[in-house]
Amino acid sequence: MKLFDVYPLYDVTPVSAKGIEVWDDKGQKYWDFYGGHAVISIGHTHPHYVKRIKDQLDKIAFYSNSIQNPIQEALAEKLGQLSSCEEYDLFMCNSGAEANENALKMASFHTGKSKVIAFNNSFHGRTSAAVAATDNPSINAPINKQQAVTFLPLNDFEAFEKAIASDAYCAVILEAIQGVGGLDEPTTEFYQFIAEKCKKHQVVLIADEVQSGYGRSGKFFAFQHHGIQPDIISIAKGMGNGFPVGGVLIHETFKPSYGLLGTTFGGNHLACAASLAVLEVLESEGLTKNADELGAYFREKAQDIPEIKNVKGRGLMIGLEFDFEVADLRKKLIYDQHIFTGSAKNKKLLRFLPALNITKEHVDLFFDALQNALK
Known about the structure:
By secondary structure, the chain is an alpha/beta fold. It has helices spanning 35-38, 47-57, 70-83, 96-111, 128-132, 157-164, 188-201, 269-284, 287-302, 327-335, 360-374; strands at 14-18, 21-24, 29-32, 88-93, 115-119, 149-152, 169-175, 204-208, 232-235, 246-251, 310-314, 317-321, 339-340, 349-352. The protein has eleven helices and 14 strands. A seven-stranded mixed β-sheet has the order 4-10-9-8-7-5-6, sandwiched between helices. The model has no long low-confidence stretch (mean pLDDT 97). This is Aspartate aminotransferase family protein.
């Protein structure tokens, strides 16, 4: 049997990693400024994270959600405290796509409606309703296209007001910083307008924080830059630092019932141990503040490189826009400078999504390598 060939692969085989350093099977060291799509939030093999998981493995790794699991409760309490979202309840799952599926399902249950408003260049996952709300026809199969989704331009007040006034929608789903789409953002005025209209029309506002959450934007959640309160928040990526875990924060005004949502693997003991470790490191090392400060330093450094035409994003969810497509530049960075970076739907954008505990020295190293690759 061979692997189903759906990924274009770089010729690099990582075998070990520590912090943002990664070594391949030939002993070559790389610097990871992409974190596997913003997943590595506290650095590869962080000692506290490793210890948490090893200690849990010695006790119990998994049991279903049919029993008491105090680690889930501890995680919910810690997450509420650090995110300032104590008025939400946590439902745990396994991925960002699953988090968004459950968020959309809750919105539909709550309103009795099925249509969704999403935005141009959005990315919410690759499954059922989540991929239907993703602005990429090439990954939407006919079965997904049965979902009724209206795509609107970001920051278009008139188009949004006209659409939501039809009273046909169960949810608006929105990334505060678009990830795959290319780091575009709603303005504060637009996000607040969305929140106001959702409340007026009794439409559920879903904040997709799968990539932008957990301190990456310089606040715990990126929507917190805009002074709004979503009804539902979806999380994943950096939540487990590489352990497959996702979650949905559901406002306490939504009432649960047995069987409304469910999962086999979500919230298992190992997942909770990994997730608690991430929160503990975020708190003890002040990583949200570090993301904010290094995002500002990154922008400062970018001003010294004339080839950079624009800097997009916030904190350590940031991108450099050039006036040329960056595919060849990414190859030079990997093979010549041994630097991992990311791409986007915007082919002129180089994405930078490192662990949140990088230093100014790491940012300097990145820009030195970038300048060498641009020569």
